[in-house]
Amino acid sequence: MIVAGHETTALTLFWSLYLLASAPVEQERLLQEVRAVALDADNAGDTFTKLPYTRAVVDETLRLYPPAFIIVRKAIGPDRIGDLAIPKGSMVSVAPWVLHRHVGRWKDPDAFNPSRFLDAQQKAPRFAYLPFGAGPRVCVGAQFALAEASIVLATLIQRFEVALADDTPVLPVGVVTTQPDHPAPFRLRVRT
Ligand code: HEM
Predict the structure, then answer these.
(1) Distance of CA 189 from the midpoint of ligand 1 (Å)
(2) Hey, CA dihedral for 123, 126, 127, 133, is it positive or negative?
């Protein structure tokens, strides 16, 4: 839980705050959703179901900045991917980073548009969206992480207006996970 579950979820929260700080309209929409929701620990399970837009922001963050930007497998036997022969022992990389921004799979792939996850028409095929992997080794903590990230994000936005304290772009760097290249300063204003 500590190794696989802490940094991945922390990065999801970092990038979601970065995206929301850069997109006031989406932050305001999230605020409208969370404004009237009671976000205390006692009813956390019920709360999650009342946060569809917050969850969509988390989904969209995981699309644009998947913490696991690459997933690697070693072929245990000869295989084939389309026209390509895979000899036994080959390292095969599946890159959520590339799949999630593929122009053939997503409309306007570089845009931050959480609503795409609320619209069944815009849903990408299952294997074009792999923030938690797929198959027998799929993330065992996925549902926990989605609930945790959504509830923490809702709590933060309910209490604070989040802005960037400077306009230096934060670039993603692939160091095991998708890290920010520098600790971006945020400015928090308490909401009244
Ligand atoms: C947003 C947060 C998270 C992301 C993006 C994430 C991503 C992933 C991915 C992509 C894999 C598959 C790796 C592969 O196929 O090689 C994975 C596996 C795994 N994750 Fe997560 N994870 C997250 C949160 C968590 C949490 C909260 C836990 C634990 C409570 C957790 C525990 C695990 C474990 C144990 C595996 C290995 C499963 C196996 O091999 O059978 N993860 N995760």
Answers:
(1) 33
(2) positive
Confidence of residue 40 (pLDDT cuts 50, 70, 90): confident
For residues 103 and 124, is the Cβ–Cβ distance under 8 A? no
How many Å separate Cα 35 from the centre of its chain? 22
Q: Which residues contact 189 (CB under 8 A, 6 or more apart)?
A: 160, 161, 163
Pocket test for ligand 1, best of 132, 139, 143 (most atoms within 8 A of CB): 139
pTM for this model (two decimals) = 0.96
Q: What is the DSSP letter of 120?
A: G
Express each pLDDT in 96-146 by its tens digit. 999 999 999 999 999 999 999 998 877 788 899 999 999 999 999 999 999
Please give the distance of CA 67 from its chain centroid, rounded to a whole number: 7
